[in-house]
Specification:
With 463 residues, the protein is α+β, with helices and mostly antiparallel strands. The protein folds into four domains: 3-73, Glutaredoxin (3-Layer(aba) Sandwich); 81-187, Glutathione S-transferase Yfyf (Class Pi), Chain A, domain 2; 220-327, Glutaredoxin, CATH 3.40.30.10; 341-456, Up-down Bundle (Glutathione S-transferase Yfyf (Class Pi), Chain A, domain 2). The chain is built from 20 helices and nine strands. It has helices at 15-23, 38-41, 63-73, 81-99, 102-106, 110-137, 149-165, 174-184, 189-195, 220-224, 226-232, 273-281, 299-303, 323-332, 341-359, 362-366, 370-398, 409-425, 434-442, 449-456; strands at residues 3-8, 29-33, 52-55, 58-61, 239-244, 261-266, 287-292, 312-315, 318-321. The strands form two sheets. The protein has a five-stranded mixed beta sheet with strand order 5-7-6-8-9. Strands 2-1-3-4 form a four-stranded mixed beta sheet. Helix 12 links the parallel strand 6 (261-266) and strand 7 (287-292). Helix 4 packs antiparallel against helix 6 (110-137) and helix 12 runs parallel beside helix 14 (323-332).
């Protein structure tokens, strides 16, 4: 099938995909979009965003979903579900790092902009890249122990950060530097780079960023704005309150991993509740470890977390961070992940689209002025809700009430995110969308989930 990749004439979120396609010897049309054409083009894009990948008459958005799918076709994706999850986590961690840069670009005061850039190049770079350096050293110079899509993805992001900030963020990290050199000299990639003209960061690209860019995949919003996370019980250092759910309702593990399992998060739903739903639905015996946000900080707890964030999933002595990576892995063990790579990619894109929607709501929580707060909420409920939920509704209608045509981890993710926003804003976002409403009723009534919800009782949004 004919293949096309649509993206801007810059590295950004498209270059790692280009690298992988060239490395894999894939013939594809590399369509470079001009920024002036984006307003018109947006109407034809699934969620108004680039990159977009086409394969015949099939379309896929979301850079991570595209990258993961290309990896499955080019020998860059391992077959083991845990190894896949570790790579997912890497991609989401580097995404957190990338989005820490956005406040610099959006800042208009030059003195403040300089300060933010200095903090990013010293504190943020060291925090993330020191951890990635260690991961690479411990794994033969690759994130998964051998060349994988996560290596390409990290290099693509680091090259973009360097271009945007006129920096060389990897210079003090020899293993990361070596990886960047390896990727650039791979067969196919080397020849592509030689033909490619040097990129220049266009100021117009800022017009494609959302008006408020505070957050992105996983828990980065809490580290960017710890005072917000603290208020909602979703952030920063944590302190154990000894709360453990009674897991007697869990069924046998049905032949799945017999290693002890733990899910660590706060005493609220947040970005972990849908993971709990999947674990209960799958009959997993696991320890539901909850921390009291009111008692933080406890330094030793945060320091024990890979990137200082929750949720964290443990299986024996193995640890996995990033909620999306965790949930995808659980799905692979629970019959909620299809075997076909394209079907998997469609669900990956659905989850990442839902995550984009979730993140649109956070400026409301950050705003302290009550008048502005109400205005932000009004705009979110009128603009963002219909833009995203009308698209989710259509996808569900076209696919038997589920994102992938049958129950999957993407359905759990949508329900979990909507439940969280509904609780926080005291709304019912799905009320005008019957297919979404039906799914919201279906998930909590599933075997295992129904019993857990009944025993758990309703959550109360923390003041």
């Amino acid at each position: 099938m004919s293949k096309k990749l649509h993206y801007f004439d810059v590295n950004g979120l498209g270059e790692a995909i280009r690298y992988m396609l060239h490395y894999g010897g894939e013939k594809f049309e590399d369509i470079r979009v001009e920024y002036k054409d984006l307003p018109t083009l947006k109407k034809s894009l699934p969620y108004g965003q680039l990159p977009l990948y086409e394969e015949g008459d099939r379309k896929l958005n979301q850079s991570i979903a595209i990258s993961r799918y290309i990896a499955s076709q080019t020998g860059l994706l391992p077959s083991d579900p845990w190894e896949q999850a570790v790579l997912d986590s890497v991609a989401l961690n580097i995404t957190d790092f990338r989005l820490k840069m956005y406040p610099i670009l959006l800042e208009k005061d030059e003195a403040r902009k300089t300060q933010l850039k200095t903090e990013f190049l010293t504190e943020t770079v060291e925090y993330y890249l020191s951890r990635m350096e260690k991961e690479l050293k411990d794994n033969k110079g690759f994130f998964g122990g051998k060349l994988s899509w996560a290596d390409f993805y990290v290099v693509g992001i680091l090259e973009t950060v360097n271009l945007v900030l006129s920096a060389e963020v990897e210079k003090n990290y020899p293993t990361i530097t070596a990886l960047m050199n390896k990727i650039r000299t791979l067969p196919g990639v080397k020849e592509y780079i030689a033909k490619r003209k040097p990129y220049v960061f266009p100021i117009l690209l800022l017009l494609t960023y959302p008006k408020v860019v505070y957050v992105q995949h996983s828990s980065v919003q809490y580290s960017l704005f710890p005072e917000v996370g603290q208020k909602f019980g979703l952030a920063g250092d944590v302190a154990a309150d000894g709360d453990r759910l009674n897991n007697s309702l869990c069924a046998a593990t049905n032949g799945l991993s017999k290693m002890s399992k733990k899910l660590l998060y706060f005493s609220i739903g947040g970005i972990a509740e849908y993971i709990r739903y999947m674990l209960h639905y799958g009959g997993h015996n696991f320890e539901d470890v909850r921390f009291d946000y009111k008692k933080w900080p406890i330094k030793e707890v945060k320091d024990s977390l890979p990137y200082g964030q929750l949720p964290l999933y443990e299986e024996g002595d193995r640890k996995l961070n990033q909620s999306i990576a965790i949930s995808r892995y659980i799905a692979s063990q629970t019959g909620l992940l299809p075997s076909d790579p394209w079907e998997q990619a469609i669900l990956d894109a659905a989850v990442l689209n839902v995550n984009d929607f979730r993140l649109k709501s956070y400026s409301y929580f950050i705003e302290k002025d009550e008048t502005k707060k109400e205005q932000i909420k009004k705009e979110f409920l009128t603009d963002s809700v219909d833009f995203f939920l009308s698209r989710f509704e259509k996808e569900l209608k076209d696919n038997n009430g589920h994102f992938g045509g049958k129950l999957s981890w993407a359905d759990f993710y949508l329900v979990g995110m909507l439940e969280g926003i509904n609780l926080a804003m005291n709304v019912q976002l799905e009320k005008n969308y019957p297919s979404i409403t039906a799914l919201m009723k279906e998930i909590p009534s599933l075997p295992g989930v129904k019993e857990y919800v009944a025993k758990r009782g309703p959550y109360v949004f923390p003041a």
